[in-house]
Amino acid sequence: MNKRQTRIFAIASTAVASLLFLVLTVDSHRQFPELTNADSITEEVVRGQDVWHANNCINCHTIFGEGAYYAPDLTKITQHRGVPYLTAFMKDPSQFYDEQTHRRLMPNPNLNDQEISDVIAFMDWVSKVDNQGWPPRPILVTGGSIPGTDLSIAQQQERGEATVAEEGATGSLPPGARPVSPGNDPIALGQALFKTAVPTCAACHSTAPGVNLAGPTLAGLATRAEEVIASPDYKGKATTAEEFVHESIVDPSAYLHPGPMYSANSVSFMPTSYGKDLTSEQIDQLVAYLMSFK
Question: Residues spanned by CATH 1.10.760.10 within the chain?
């Protein structure tokens, strides 16, 4: 091309690129209200955002990939933890994590009940924004160690050495679990539900021995269920391990696992929505999978 043709090509290319950029910008703004659930921005959500900023939560936590990356990403926190858990946690974080066991201790923000409710409303709005699948994995915060290692799961995840807790140190199946194939195998279907139900069970429960997350580890659940039923402290209606696991899914407060991390005021932090959101067949599949952990 000669100089005149080169100049025309450069000007035309710039014009086309500018026009394309303008069209994409207008289209993005057109979709923002739907993508961000703008209709769900209530006064409570706005107040919660103000509390979030006033306490500089982003100095430690991350939402939408923005923040300090010092503490867990909270973009989907309300989908991983229920309102009772989040409320109890913000009232007194020290009962969940301590500096002797965990490297990082969240300070008590000293929020009143209204401020806590507002923050949860804000985080719930955040969790429902279409963010193209961010973050890519559930948060993992625990003082337990992955078997065969000296580092906690949280520490290994920071170093890129840990994946999900249930895989253990080598990526093998958890103790007590057996290899399954897809199809109509209820254990395989239950395993899929364990990872895909909303809220996902894997976000709160590990299947590795000794690794307690927001919920207790499910390693050895079948054996532990029999022990609980035989205990005089058990006041539920289950008479078999299978019935106990089923009861724990649909009525989590029927038996409260010991420890302040798991309940408050005789109410379990585990969501009560599974009995309504899952079919009886799906619950049976989930029970079959959990019963494989002897």
Answer: 41-127, 153-290
